[in-house]
Structure formats: structure tokens, C-alpha cells
Fold each of these.
Amino acid sequence: MSNVFELFWQMMVGFVSAFIRLIWKPSAKSIHGETALVTGAGHGLGRLLCIRLAKLGAKIVAVDVNEEANQETVEILKQNGGIAFGYTVDLRKAEEIHRLASKVRDEVGDVTMLINNAGIIYPTDILSLTEEMISNTFRVNVISHFLLIKEFLSNMKRKNHGHIFAIASYAGLIGNAFLTDYSASKHAVVGLMEGLRNELKRQKLNGINLTCVCPSFVSTGMVQNPRARLGLVPVLTPEYTVNKSVEALLRNEFLVTLPSATFQRVVRDLVPDSVMDALQAYVRAEVDLIDNADE
Ligand SMILES: NC(=O)c1ccc[n+]([C@@H]2O[C@H](COP(=O)([O-])OP(=O)(O)OC[C@H]3O[C@@H](n4cnc5c(N)ncnc54)[C@H](O)[C@@H]3O)[C@@H](O)[C@H]2O)c1
């Protein structure tokens, strides 16, 4: 019985502190001197995340399959007074991830912030998706997260200190037509982050924080011509997305939807599927499909 009272007490404290946090945002933590490994650092959100984190004093380990673009990011960081190291890695390949991790440990030191950002997408109908495409999507968008977490979490656990950050997507909350493998991979990222957060709480490792950001569309060029009726799924600028993502990271916030999708998530659980179908058909969030698609 006392456990039930304890639970109610904890829930009340949780509600009250969440309400207070709405009014008085908690102060931002310092990441000066942390070592942040950022995947997909050569372009889009990854490059901007590197720039913002380096400005805040973090040492950056930039990782991308595109050597030239990644090196460009490293040069930008160095020219602005940052400390940066670049590694060319194909995140589809487990052996390259293991090699990266041991090189980073030898050449840079312990990674204290893991920024799982890299992602790929094949907008097409499910029958046009090849096994290779599905496998690539899952390898880059999800399995690389697991492998990198497995490489760097032990050290974070030893020190009860660290931050694991992931970019998922709105597609990780609501499945999108013609983005089935992508949506499934992003749902998996949200599941991974939620599960890991609960695991670390059970292990009383409160010094390791997790942040999972779910943006709507972002104008990085990753998808072509993103659109939705009345702009109901907005196209965000990369700068806005990164500012909000870094703000969430500095305040140790967990699940962040950009823009806020709390209302849509509650509605989704309350209304019948047919109502949800009508809403989806009306909003019609979509991107240009690749050539072989069968719409
Ligand atoms: N752009 C959007 O509309 C949008 C919306 C929601 C979420 N996201 C997510 O945000 C993240 C960043 O997206 P972005 O828009 O900056 O993409 P982007 O295409 O601009 O950049 C992705 C980077 O990842 C790298 N990359 C791709 N495959 C790789 C591999 N196998 N190994 C290593 N690096 C690889 C690319 O070279 C590139 O530098 C992704 O996870 C994406 O799913 C994007």
C-alpha cells in the first residue's frame, strides 16, 4: 500500500515540477570540455549541430560517409577556433563503426556526448522498396545508433555522466504514406531512446541524459519539395531546428517535437482510426517520390 502512496506522491511532484518548468525554464547546462561525436556531420543538421556545439566549447568528432563534406565541416570548426577531428565512416557497416570507436578512443579520448543524427530516406511505395534499400535505411537510421551507444555507453556509465542525443522525426510518431521503411526506422529510434531512458533510470544512472528530437520537415535538401495542406506540417529551417535541438539538449529535455506535436499525439490516441484517416487525407503531408514509385 505504501508503494501506491509513494507512486501518487511522485506523480504529483512530477506534475507540479513539469508545470513549474513550463513557466521557469531550467537553466542550460555547460558542455564546455565535453567530447561530442556527431554522425552525418558533413551536411544539413549534422554540420550545424557541430558548429553550435563547438561554439559552446565541445570538442567535435565529425563522422560522415562523405569525406570531402566532412572535412569541410572540420575546417569550418577549426577556422572558428574549435577543436575538431574528422572520420570517414559508412554507418551501414558495423565493422567500420567498431574501427571508428577504437580509433576515437585512442586518438581523441572518451566520447561524453553521442549525437546520432545521420539519416537516409527513399520516398517510394512499399513494393518498390528493395531489400537493400530497407536494409540501408535501418542500418543508418537505427542500427548505427545501437552500435555507437554500445561502443560509448560503458564509459558514460562508469562515470555516471554523458548525453545521448538522437534525431528521429515526426515520422517516428505517425507513419507516413510512401515512407514506410523510414517511418518504421524513426519509430524504432523513439522506442530505443524511450527504452534506454527507462533502463538507465532503473539503474539509477541519472547523470546520463537522453534527448530525442522529432522535427517535421526541414529544408536541408534531404527530401524534395516537402509539403502539406495549409502548411499543417511546416517546413522548418535547419537553423531553427538546430537551435531548438541544442536548447533541449542543454536543458536535458527528453522527447521534443518540432513544432510541438503534443496536441496531435493526444488526438491520435483519442479518436477512432477512421477520423485519423480523414485527418491524414486532409493534411496530405508528402514529399516528391523517387522515380520508380507507384503512387
Ligand atoms: N530534412 C528533413 O526534412 C528531416 C525531417 C525530420 C528528421 N530529419 C532527420 O534529421 C537527420 C539529419 O537530416 P538532414 O536533413 O540534415 O540530412 P542531410 O541529407 O542534409 O544530411 C545527412 C548526412 O548524413 C550523411 N550520411 C548519409 N548516409 C550515411 C552513411 N551511410 N554513413 C555516414 N554518414 C551518412 C550524409 O553524407 C549527410 O552528410 C536525419 O536523421 C533525418 O532523418 C530530417
Amino acid sequence: MDVNLQNVPVLALQAEICRRYAPTFPPPMLGGVTLPNALSPQEPPSSGTKYRVAIIGSGNWGSVVAKIAAYNTVRNSIFEDEVRMWVFEELIEGQKLSEVINTKGENVKYLPGVQLGANVKAVPDLLEAVNLATLLVFVTPHQFVKGLCKQMIGNIPKHARAISLIKGMDITVSGPCMVSETIEEVLGVECSVLMGANVANDVAKEEFCEATVGCADANFAQTFVKLFDTSYFQVASTPNVKGVELCGTVKNVVALGAGFVDGLKLGSNTKAAIMRVGLEEMRKLSRKLFGDISDDVYFQSCGVADLITTCYGGRNRKVSEAYVGKYKESPSEGGASLWEKLEKELLGGQKLQGFLTSVDLQELLVARHWEHDFPFFTTINLIATGKLDPINITSYRGCSRS
Ligand SMILES: NC(=O)c1ccc[n+]([C@@H]2O[C@H](COP(=O)([O-])OP(=O)(O)OC[C@H]3O[C@@H](n4cnc5c(N)ncnc54)[C@H](O)[C@@H]3O)[C@@H](O)[C@H]2O)c1
């Protein structure tokens, strides 16, 4: 092997070895996390043809992700250039949203002012959007994903792979079902996840950030890294799919707590305490559900970084802050209907995830008799469902098992 050991940093050397001798060696990893931009084998699609990408969803994040993927597909020969983006059709000033997107190159409703790329094609027919697609990128609000998957049964190639960017879970009789599991079960394809500290509008402005791909197959993870990684959106991968997904999902519940703190005009010490205890319960939940998940996951973008950004900048925090004001005016109106009303008033068609996730999560905690093990999540749920005044957000210790 012709490598000058003195001039090559050790990780680059490992990467070079991987490139030459894969699959004998896995890609370079640090603490279980594959480093971004690592050289890895140019794995061809199994058919020998290029990967065809379909984005299922075209909201705020879906549109940003279409833009990123479209940038990478034209630069990387393993992908077909065209990125199809399924659009839930609606009328914008009498015109179909999909037609407006294809004419203007912009999603005027969910991501105004941002050009998606000439190779993004908005398609309102789901089956046409996913026809022959071998990389399926799911990015809808979580309540719609199962129905969409059911419509797709029998209409996607057997060797297709999926990745979910969706934050949320379903509760079934046997326990929690993460969105990636729902996709795997309904469609019979392997599903990875991408989560991170990614407020869509900031990523759209190409402000620097990071994200984490959870993909059990370390070699294939590099295909997803190639699809999403850019100079401003840096993607690392880890094999721990469930750990990444649970972080991304449950942090929306912690964000409700952060919004209550803001609504009560409490300062940053209190908010930091709320975030810390939220992270602690996130970790405890992951361990109880999925066994010993490595702490590396919490130090990735999907963990502590996503928690910070969501508790400062996300839509769940924003609506939760407003909830406190409305609750003070009329406590009897607290609960589900107030969230629904505020979602409509404040989010312009975007969907709120935190309240639904809190309800699903609490169902799980009650079914397993874990409420006292998760006093903070339980307190948030009691406030969110209108059973407790938001002023009690810092009283979670009173609920804990001594
Ligand atoms: N927006 C962000 O900053 C962000 C960042 C990271 C992850 N996410 C996650 O991405 C996922 C999608 O969020 P988003 O921001 O792209 O969406 P969004 O909330 O901006 O938009 C809602 C989308 O749902 C569609 N929709 C409405 N009714 C529907 C129906 N009946 N069936 C199917 N679709 C319907 C709308 O057309 C729209 O595309 C969510 O799970 C979210 O948690 C969002």
C-alpha cells in the first residue's frame, strides 16, 4: 500500500484503508459515530443503476430537505438528478400548490423565498412520486405517515431503502412504535433516520448546522451521508437507529416545558434546569425501552444539540409559550382544543408535534406504570392536557418516586 504515514492524519489514513479494502474494514468511527465526509466505497445501487430519490412530504422541513438532496444529486453520480417531492395538494390563491412549486421553483406556502433547485419536481400523486424510487425520504408530520405507507404498498421496488426525518411515535398494545418501525412494518423496507438541531428556516438560509443519520448498516449509511451532507449541513452517522429517533421525538415534549418556562417569564437558569432534567429523562426512557444506548448518541446533533435548539427556537416552544398566556386568561379552556387553536393561529398550516407526542408518551408511561419514574414528562403532560396550571412546571420533583 502506497501511503506516506508521516503526512497522513490517522483518521484520514483509516478512511483511505477503508476505501481501498472495503468491505474488509468498516468506515472510520469515533465512539460509535462515523465521521462526516469519511471516504467510503462508492456503493452502487443493487440493480447497478443510479439511486432515484423521492421525498414524501413538502412542508417546511420537507422543502428544505428537497433543496439539499437536489443540490447533492446533481453533484454525485450515484444518484439520478431528479428529486421528486410528493405534495399534499392544496390551493394557493386558486392555484394548485404543486403547479406553483413547479413554475416558481419555490414552495410559496411552507418555505417562501427559497429556490429549491431546478431538479426538484413537485408531484401531487403519491404513487407517481415514488414510482421506481430506490431512496424514500419520509418527512411528513407523523400522524400521516402510516396512511401514506399503506397507499404505497406494492408500488415501490423491493430493494428500496427508506429514511425517516419524522419526529413522533405511535403507541400500540405491545409498546411504542417509532416511525421508522412503522415504515419498515408496512412497506417491508429497511428504514434509517436523520435527526438533528435543524430548525428548517435556518437550514434553508444555509446557516451552519449538523445532523445525525442513524443507520444500522455502516456502509449504506454513507449513501445517506452523500445525499444530505453539504458544507453547511454536516452529517455524521451512527448505527444506533432507535437511540437517534427517540431523542428526536421526545425532545419535542421537553420543548413544551421550555415554552411554559418562557411563558411564565422565568429566566435562563430555570430553562437550563428544565433542559437538563428533560435530557436525563430522555436518556432514562431510551434505556428502559431499548437497553443500554451509548451516551455518544446524546452528544450528537440528534441529542443535546437538537434539545437546545428546540428549547430556544422551535415551533413547539413558541406555541407552548403562547399556551401559558391563554391559560392565564381562561384556565378552563386548557388542553387539546387550545393547542389546536394555537396551532392554527400561530403556525400557518405547519403542524405541532410536541402535544401529540406528550399524549402518546404518557399513554406508554401509564401502561407500564412508569409515571413516577418520569416525573418531568408526567408534569408536562398534566399541564398540556389542562389538568395542572403551568406554574407547576418546576414542581416535578414532588411527583418523583423517593
Ligand atoms: N420544520 C422543522 O424545523 C423541522 C425540523 C426537523 C424535523 N422536522 C420534522 O419533519 C416532519 C415534517 O415537518 P415539516 O416542517 O416538513 O411539515 P409542516 O408542519 O411545515 O407542514 C405540514 C405538512 O403536512 C401536510 N399535510 C397537511 N395535511 C395533510 C394530510 N392530511 N396528509 C398528508 N399531509 C398533510 C401539509 O401539506 C404540509 O406539507 C415533522 O415530523 C417534523 O417534526 C421539522
